[in-house]
Structures are given as C-alpha cells and as structure tokens.
Design goal:
By secondary structure, this protein is mainly alpha-helical. It contains 21 helices and four strands. The strands form two sheets. The protein has a two-stranded antiparallel ribbon with strand order 1-2. The chain has a two-stranded antiparallel ribbon with strand order 3-4. A hairpin with a 5-residue loop joins strand 3 (421-423) and strand 4 (429-431). Helix 6 (133-145) packs parallel to helix 19 (402-416) and helix 13 (262-294) crosses helix 14 (299-322). The longest helix has 33 residues, at 262-294. The chain is globular.
C-alpha cells in the first residue's frame, strides 16, 4: 500500500490522536498479557498498567535514539517470558524477583549495546551479506505465519464463562469475522480518514456485536445463554482507589532484598543474555520489514546501531516500570502497512497516550474488556500483512536457482513447523521457531554459496581458435 503519511509527515493533531488510538489498540492486548502470563505462572503481581507505562517510556527512548526516524512501537516481549519466570524461580523472595526483572533487563540491554558498538565500528555490510533478501524475506514471512495460530485461536474463543462448546466457538467466530470484514471493507472501500483507521472501526463493530450477545446472555443462566457472554463486564468491579500503576521498581525496593547475591546474578545472566541474542535476530527482521514498507533502509539511516541502542535501553526502561523487556511489535508494523501511515508523530503520540492512559483506570479496564475473538479478527489482517511483506522481499529473488530455493524452503518449513529448541537445564533458554529458522537459513545460504568468490576469481578458460 502506498504511504499516505511518510515518516517525517505531520498529520493534524486531531487525526494524530485517532491514529495513535488505533496503534494503541493494535499493540494493547499483547503488551498487557505478558504480566498476566507471568503472574499466573509464578504468583507474582506484575501490573498491566505498569507494563503499558513501561512500553510507552521504552518507545520514547527508542524514538530518541533513532532520531525520530523509525515509526514502530515497542511493547512487552514474549521472548523473555521464560527469563522472567526464571528470575522469580531463583529468587529468595518476591522483592528479589522484581529486582531480578530489572537487573535481567539491564543484562539483555547491554547485549544490544555491545552489538551496537560493533555495528558502529564495522558497519552493517556484514549483516546484509549474512542476511540477504533470500534469507530475511522468508524470515519476516515466518514472523507473521508463526502468529497465525494465535489469531485463529483468539477468533475461536467465545464465552469467558462456562464450558467451551460449539455454541461458544460460533459466537466468537461471528464476532471475529465481523471485526475482520469490517476492517477489510473500511481499508478497501473507505474514503480518506475511514481508509486510514480501519482497525478502530473494525474493533468497534466487533465490540458492539459482542456487547449485544453479552446483553442477551443475562436473560438466563442456561448453557445456551452463557455461551453468549463474550465481554467480561465484571472487570469494572475493581478497587477504584488503585488508579495508579504498581511499578516494578516500587515492589523491588520496598521489600526484603537480603537474598540478592552473586549466585542469583549468575542466574539472571544465564536466563537473559542468550535470549537477547535470539531477539537480536528478530530485531533485524522487523527493521528489514519496516524498511521495505517505508522504502527506506533503517539499518543505514538512522542506522542499526541506533535502533539497537533504542531497543536495548528501551527494554531497560520498560522493565524498570513494568517488569518486561520491550521489543519492536509486528502489530505496530502491520498497522503502518495497512493504514499507510508511517508518521513518527503518530508513534510518539501513541507512547504518550500509553503513559497517560496507564493512570486512567476506567479506560484501561475498558480496553482490557475487548474480547479475544474481536482482537483475533484484527490480528488475522495484521499478521497476514507481516507475512505478505516478507514474501514481497523475495519477489526479485531467482527461485529457479536451486541454491535460493533451498534457503527459502528451509526457513519456511522450519518456521511454519514450529522448530523451537530449548536448552540450558534449570535456566532454560528457548530458541523461538523464528530464530531457529533464521539461523538455519543463514547456515544454508552460506553452505550453498560456499566458494562463489573463488569461482569468480578464476580466470576464464582460453578457447582454441
């Protein structure tokens, strides 16, 4: 899609607020679900509002380091879920665990800082040679395809109460498809502003239908009625006096830290540092994808060293407030691609909006009531655009050459097949399917092109006259 607003363009503030809300809706669910998963696994009390605040601050840090030239929002990273759980598992107390989240993020961020310094010294030429279009294209496609199961699973999630059955699936599917088709219709047939905010309208339509189903569900308590209860309005029954985010650093420094020692620090290094190298590979893929969308190589300008510093320092800031390391979000990139709005002003406003709204409890709760099936409908489009963006990168690659064909085949099959690899015993480290596919793709590309320079250097054979 042709961009309506470029990176440096400045839409009016009225439009920018609407565009920013759309970005926030796109990244909201994934950002706040990370603390929920960790809380459920280790019994911690990480704040969803704190995660939203940390994502906003992390994005502002990223924008500063990239000189406001890279239009992407940073949210809570799923790659560090195992690391966060290990931080609590190895802690002597909950307070130590919260402090461990902050220290672990510092170690992960330092990995990015070191790599950034190396890139600053030696340039990005080696990265372009190591990861040409034939490698990075299918890897970006895998980022979208690997999330397909999440989107479809969300669409098929219906009532939050009672046992799952065909009725709950059908109701969720109906809400998800209404969201999806409304988004598509607005993007394809909409005029001007409507064409640029398809997600807001789509989510609004899906939410309205889900609210109607939920209202009908209160007519009875039979399984048939309970199957229609899509929105959990009970979330509004909360402690309204707790209007402010419960920041991670407050939980850490107001508790018992006597168990914090050198052994625990080694645990954090083992849990966080290897994952940082994995996420580095996905960082490259995300920025290559965004570069293709805005038709400007972000690895050259503002430079990979700046995007890495922004991501790394932004992760430290995000964990300080919300506990989770941050990372560039594919949902944000997909939103840029579909809406045609790459204005950094929008991303900046989204970050400020995330920070402000983390203190406005009613709005935070309202956003948290958006049902999974509705967000799943939007994500079908978002994740699909990511996948297609990757495939577009290889349109100029000669797939008639078996060397290229092997590289693309290895990446696609290993990625779609979910070849995730775990190692490390107690402090388990997981190479995600995307990272594994990328590594195998790089190795395959090096193998099939081994000796290319040598062959080119040999003089042509003389022919007899």
């Amino acid at each position: 899609m042709k961009l309506v607003y470029g990176v440096s363009d400045k839409p009016s503030w009225g439009k920018t607020l609407v565009f920013a809300l759309q970005q926030l809706l796109a990244i909201m669910a994934a950002t706040i679900v990370v603390p929920v998963i960790v809380n459920g696994a280790v019994g911690s009390e990480l704040s969803q509002s704190g995660a939203l605040f940390g994502a906003g601050v992390g994005t502002l840090v990223y924008l500063l380091f990239t000189k406001f030239r890279s239009p992407v929002f940073l949210g809570s990273s799923f790659a560090f879920l195992g690391s966060m759980m290990a931080a609590f598992a190895g802690a002597a107390s909950m307070a130590v665990g919260y402090l461990g989240l902050i220290i672990g993020a510092v170690f992960a961020g330092l990995v990015y800082v070191v790599i950034a310094l190396l890139v600053k010294k030696f340039g990005v030429g080696w990265i372009n040679k190591l990861m040409p279009a034939v490698v990075i294209g299918p890897t970006v496609a895998i980022i979208g395809l690997s999330l397909a199961g999440n989107a479809v699973g969300d669409v098929l999630t219906g009532s939050f109460i009672g046992e799952a059955n065909n009725a709950t699936v059908y109701v969720g599917l109906t809400c998800g498809l209404v969201t999806l088709f409304t988004t598509i219709a607005c993007s394809v047939y909409g005029k001007k502003m409507v064409k640029m905010i398809p997600f807001i309208i789509g989510i609004g339509a899906g939410y309205a239908l889900a609210a109607i189903f939920t209202a009908i569900s209160y007519a009875g308590d039979s399984p048939e009625f309970l199957a229609l209860r899509i929105i959990d309005f009970g979330k509004f029954n909360t402690d309204w006096s707790k209007w402010y985010p419960d920041f991670t650093f407050i939980k850490a420094f107001t508790g018992d830290l006597s168990g914090f020692n050198g052994t625990y620090i080694v645990t954090l290094i083992a849990a966080y540092v290897p994952v940082a190298f994995v996420v580095f590979a996905e960082h490259i893929a995300d920025h290559k994808n965004l570069s293709s969308i805005i038709e400007h190589d972000l690895l050259e300008e503002p430079g990979l060293h700046r995007t890495l510093l922004g991501d790394g320092i932004g992760s430290m800031a995000g964990a300080f407030f919300g506990g989770a390391c941050n990372t560039t979000y594919g949902e944000s990139i997909g939103c840029v691609a579909i809406s045609g709005n790459a204005s950094v002003r929008t991303i900046f406003t989204t970050a400020i909006m995330a920070i402000v709204l983390s203190f406005i409890l009613p709005f935070s709760i309202l956003l948290s009531t958006i049902p999974s099936c509705v967000m799943g409908g939007v994500c079908i489009a978002l994740y699909g655009f990511i996948a297609v963006s990757g495939l577009k990168m290889i349109k100029e690659v000669d797939l008639g050459d078996n060397r290229n064909l092997f590289v693309v085949s290895v990446i696609l099959i290993c990625g779609v097949g979910g070849m995730a690899i775990s190692f490390g015993g107690n402090n388990e480290v997981t190479l995600t399917a995307v990272a594994t596919a990328l590594i195998l793709g790089i190795l395959t590309n090096l193998l099939v092109h081994r000796g290319d320079k040598k062959e080119e250097a040999q003089p042509a054979e003389k022919t007899e006259e």
